[in-house]
């Protein structure tokens, strides 16, 4: 399946509004001055998504020490995210994109295939954003195992 992504490394990251865990409105642009990991994932509580969240959680303090924010985005609602955060002990923000507006802005809401059926869904993709809001690296069709270390190593080599 070929996929045409409309964002490229070097583009400015599209701004978007989201709710934090206290139901306050935040914007991606509120984090200018920090490096940001935005990782899109299909669904809370699935094996791959749980592995990915767990690994980002394990490395969370290292991200914090290096002034890097982690934002996980999926179509799940806030209630599901809260249960996922509690069960998996996730210390970073999970953002609900139930209308897929953010994933569409980032070009990761796409046609997928599973067991011969086609459907629209979120392609597991990670965007690394620098302190100025520019996309410096995009990881497409991410394999969850080891991805957090890969992202952290990318940022630390660029320190």
Number of domains: 1
Average pLDDT level: 90
Q: What separation lies between the terminal Cα atoms?
A: 36 Å
Q: How many beta-strand runs?
A: 9
CATH superfamily, by name, is Glutaredoxin
Q: How much beta, percentage-wise?
A: 25-35%
Oligomeric form: single chain
Query: Could you give the order of strands across the largest sheet?
Result: 5-4-3-8-9
CATH topology: Glutaredoxin
Note poorly predicted spans. none
Number of helices: 5
Structural class assignment: alpha/beta
Percent in helix: 25-40%
CATH class category name: Alpha Beta
Write down the Rg: 15 Å
What can be said about the biggest beta sheet?
Answer: 5 strands, mixed
Helix/strand order, N-terminal first: EEEHHEHEHEEEEH
- Note the overall shape: globular
What is the CATH architecture descriptor?
3-Layer(aba) Sandwich
């Amino acid at each position: 399946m070929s996929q045409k992504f409309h964002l490229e490394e070097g583009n400015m990251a599209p701004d978007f509004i989201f709710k934090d865990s206290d139901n306050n409105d935040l914007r991606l642009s509120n984090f200018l001055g920090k490096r940001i990991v935005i990782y899109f994932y299909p669904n809370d509580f699935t094996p791959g998504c749980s592995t990915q969240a767990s690994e980002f959680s394990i490395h969370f303090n290292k991200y914090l020490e290096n002034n890097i924010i982690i934002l996980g985005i999926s179509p799940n609602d806030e209630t599901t995210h809260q249960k996922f955060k509690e069960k998996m002990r996730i210390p970073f923000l999970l953002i609900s994109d139930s209308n897929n507006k953010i994933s569409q802005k980032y070009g990761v809401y796409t046609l997928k295939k599973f067991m011969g059926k086609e459907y629209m869904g979120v392609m597991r993709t990670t965007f690394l954003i620098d302190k100025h809001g520019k996309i410096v690296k995009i990881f497409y069709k991410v394999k969850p195992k080891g991805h957090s270390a890969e992202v952290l190593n990318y940022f630390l080599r660029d320190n």
